[in-house]
Amino acid sequence: MATLDQERAQRLAKAMKGIDISQRQLGIAAHVSYQQIGFILSGKRKTTYEFMCKVAPTLKVSPDYLWKGKDPIQELKEAAGAVIKDVDQRDSFSFPILDYISAGQLFTTEEKVEGVLKATRSELDMSIVHPERTYAVRVVGTSLEGDEIYDGDVLLVEKEPIFVDGDIYIVRVGAESAVRHVYRDNGMARLVSSNGECREIKVTELDIRGRVLYSRPPMRKHFR
Predict the structure, then answer these.
(1) Side-chain half-sphere of 123: how many Cα atoms within 13 Å?
(2) pTM over 0.85
(3) How confident is the model at residue 71 (pLDDT cuts 50, 70, 90)?
(4) Cα dist. 137→71, 116, 216 in Å?
(5) Would residue 196 count as lying in a domain?
(6) What dihedral do alpha carbons 51, 54, 56, 62 form, nearest 10°?
(7) Disulfide engineering: 191 pairs with which of 9, 57, 201, 208, CB 3.0-4.6 Å?
(8) Which domain holds residue 101?
(9) Do residues 44 and 110 both lie within one domain?
């Protein structure tokens, strides 16, 4: 039976073969030593998650696929496919509305329930895969206007999501929270806005409180 490091090396080799890239080409593109790639492929050196994060974008796969053999996006699709039929049969939903969330700088919030949001499936214009762990929260701030999320909008948020790099999340850093795009990079988490004005926030530790779900047209069309 192959060890974890051997399995990771096999996935790395498969991903390289899939886009027909050599060790030297991958090393140049991902800014890593091509000798290190060779050592990992041959089993002479163990790999690290940080290394997988560096080479994954060039290989057009997720770091989690190279590291664990699982693609979070595919897992999300499979999870949705397993329950979407039952969920789609619902005509209406009720979600707790929590206190506001900052679309800007990190801000202290208490996450207290302020009411209930009721909406029909047609109003949502989207499929709710896990209604039992979905809640609503009102946005305060303008840092996500590039995503058509505006001050005063009500967002739906799924707790305990599969992490997908770059998606929009409610995050908590210490006692402070915000809603931003989240990217993981070299052991850091980057909290990124989309309005071109708010500065990027870098943190080493954060607690993801949920992934933002929003429809097209945006939720603001339905809720005020």
Answers:
(1) 15
(2) no
(3) low
(4) 29, 10, 18
(5) yes
(6) 80
(7) 201
(8) 90-221
(9) no
